[in-house]
Amino acid sequence: MVRTVTALMLREIATTYGRSVGGYIWAILEPVLGVALLSVLFSLALRSPGLGSNFPLFYATGFLPFAMFHDLSSKTAAAIRFSRPFLAYPSVTFIDALIARVVLNVLTHATVIAIVISGIYVAFQLPGPVDLAPVLEALLLLALLGMGVGTLNCFLITSFPIWERIWSIITRPLFLVSGIFFLYDLMPAKAQALLWYNPLIHCIGLMRRGFYPTYEAAYVSRTYVLTVAITLIVAGLALLEKKHKKLLER
């Protein structure tokens, strides 16, 4: 399995980022530009961000975790379609394809988050230290959540191709309601009652707790996010295990 997963990861690295340094630079440059754009736009309209006084740090701690979830879930959902030619070999299973995509994308985004946020701390000479415990917890929960959504969608998209478009449409508001631009604590009670059920709100709140010592994020429930993630992973794997042979024939 280790050899197979490693080979699939190397193939995806060559396919996604190319064999030149430029592909890896773009992987870092893209989120940097996204954070910079948000910072410039909101700094023109607001005197200060929701936490602290540094716009890039506030939006980086919201945008980068969301980007990690979105990319991980999307890449995992396309795992069978991407690795279909190799799944014809008995030694390669759909589990290998899923693991390869999850591991590679988690490592990539964790590295990008570390580089971008470290760059913000250095560029703006922000005070430390950072509490790494909640940051690592947030990354782990994001990885599990992205894997869960992606695994279930891997079955649904492969079985019903129209689901890919439907999912894209119904999840577009996630960018606006996941706490990237605002703090859950400052929202009206009725809005909080609905937003609490968005697992990304909890992950982003936990991430920001690590960078802002005075931010408690008391609403965060690791148990809720973990329950949602594990449920989706189990459901997705069970469906793929039962139907993956038929899906490969499509």
UniProtKB/TrEMBL annotation:
Gene Ontology cellular-component annotations: ATP-binding cassette (ABC) transporter complex
Main localization, broad class: membrane
InterPro entries tied to this protein: ABC2_TM, ABC2_TM_bact-type, ABC_2_transport
Domain ABC transmembrane type-2: 22-243
Any single Pfam family the record assigns to this protein: ABC2_membrane
Transmembrane segments: 21-45, 57-74, 110-126, 138-160, 166-187, 223-240
Protein name per Swiss-Prot or TrEMBL: Transport permease protein
Gene source species: Paracoccus kondratievae
